[in-house]
Specification:
437 residues, mainly alpha, 20 helices
Length: 437
Amino acid sequence: MTETAAHTATTTTAPAGPAASPARTVPAGPAGGARAWLVWGIGVGVYFLAMFHRNGLGAAALEAQERFDAGPALLSMLPMLQLLVYVVLQVPTGLLADRVGPRVSLTAGAVLMAAGVALFAVAPSLGTAIAGRVLIGMGDAVTFLNVIRLAALWFPRSRYALVSGLTGVAGGIGQAASVAPLSFALHGLGWTGAFLAFSAVTLVMSLLVLLVVRDRPTGPLPGGTRPRVRALESIAEALRTRGPRLGMVHHAAIMPPYTTLGVLWGYPFLVEGAGFAPGVAGTLLSGIGAAVLWVSPLIGALAGRHPGVRRPLATTLASLFAVGWLAVVGWPGGLPPTGVVLAVLVVSAAGAVAAPALSFDFARDGLPAERTGVASGLVNMSGFLTTVVVTVAAGVVLETGAGFQAAFVPLTVTTALAGGALVTMLWRRPPRPVADG
């Protein structure tokens, strides 16, 4: 089957593997329309808040140090633990999404985040604050997978990449918008009042999910039950299917470089490594991140209409990433010229923004919409787990006194290896199906 055929097929699919099960019939895709956009819009509102809560702590760092009498190293446990909870729960929340559906999952996620923010607001100690951030991480872990599941269940297959890309843009806006409103609220309402206010907003969003969101345009599956697949069978099905495997290696290759810079090492790299002034470094990171947001919906729309372009697009991105980061770490005599550094940053940012549109669109291939939760969880976990590993590895290398070229070697290695695996899988000719009889 060609890539285009795999993308648009709506009749019969069967999982790949040596012991493939009998073919199953996949119903025609939903029509989309205004109600689909409304349902997705409520879901993406929860994701916007999840990104707001995930990244807003930076605006409260100084107040948190004073409130909990904690130094920077101890305080850094809060975002790192929250991210770790997010990564660990990706597959379990994917299983949950396939079992109970997006409406219940998103409601539970919003309630968990509201409870976590409220607990963080009244926390008398760092231990209680950590418990609040864990609850926020649990709610956050549920959110993205279920928003793109709404896209799978409410929109035609040809729109899935576009809606996934728009979901990523909404998350990016939530991340960028977290600092100013929280800073304003902290100065106007104080610590407890500010966080309780955002907890209330999140709780209101959970009520909107209950009132507006439905799992599918036609209601529950016939008979009122969902197909039950054992957890290990769901994971095995996703892992042996080509589409989810492509999504996993694509996310591992494309997402981590700029995410690593955005989470921790971008500002120190530009200031201490490349010699930029602090104000210029901060403006560059924010400006580049905002300037490439348009890439995701563009690629999503293109991939939805012409799925055959996914292969050359993914190949080009993986090749540019490998060459660019090899230039950064291997340039003789120190970092490459400023123009090369900036070009690598721009390409990395554009790739990170485009990652959801392509990675999760690949993961849809070969699976029915009702069982995409686990596949999406595996894809998300591959990108975030790789990010955590290379971010920590960079810190360990820098601790030894080595420079940023050495610190980014682990990131370059994982990017090149995952990119090589992606290109091999994309261009390897699939085995011919054996004719019956």
